[in-house]
Give the backbone structure.
Amino acid sequence: MRRLVALYRSPTYSPAQHRSNDTAILDDTIAGLQRRGWNVTRTGEGDVVAGRVPTAELYVNMCQGPAASERLLNLVPREALAVNPPESVLNCHRHRLVARMEAAGLPFPRTLIVPTADPQALIPLVHQLNGDGRPVWVKRGDVHAETSADVVATKEAGVTDAIAEFARRGVSRVALQAHIAGPILKFYAVADGRFFSWYPADGPRDRHVEIDEDRLRELVFAAARAVGLEVFGGDVAFPKPDAPVLIDLNDWPSFAPVRVAAAAAIAAYIDEKATNGKQA
């Protein structure tokens, strides 16, 4: 029987309602793989950090923290398959994601990764970033979010206070990100395109939004390729219907509104890739 290790995300990186939703999508995906003949061992980020990871042919990876992801780089056997690969997860941490999107030439808000140690020294950068008077987004500069306080929007005058609050919580760097006007969409996808779903971030999920879906698909799949993700989601702004701008890219989100269909697609994708030894 083929062996897989399911690597569950630490609750630290699944704030509030995401905790049960993150567990549920991996549970459902693993159930689909079990039906395809895989023998499953379940473990989590704490065991990964401690170096306790069983040997297997397949690692189904929802770890998100830097310590676990960096350990996995060496713990996953060279001949094994990992989805998502740990290097792709590390590439999604904001201080790396910004550089990856810039290198790929993809539409992304102007973003500055700055230390939190001296907020007052950053005022000239804030002026430069926010010259049009729009809000500035202040986000922790590593993982996506541990609490709701890790992503805040503020007027220019409040940026230094926001940075100081991050510093008080022990966050060493933040991302200062320009605001992008227009409707925001949330999306979920699998790398080969067999699953792709999106909906408006505000209002009813079936609310009509005038966008160019082909441009949306082109952007989000290009972003995933740029960081090496296979199971992913995120947020896109549309300042114009045919001009999407990627706001965030997430490694293996909860897929909560579309979990049943998404889990079936993810399980099929992983099984085919593991069986064929190549991109499904």
In short: The chain has three domains: 2-82, 110-178, 181-254. The first strand starts at residue 2 and ends at 8. The mean pLDDT is 92.
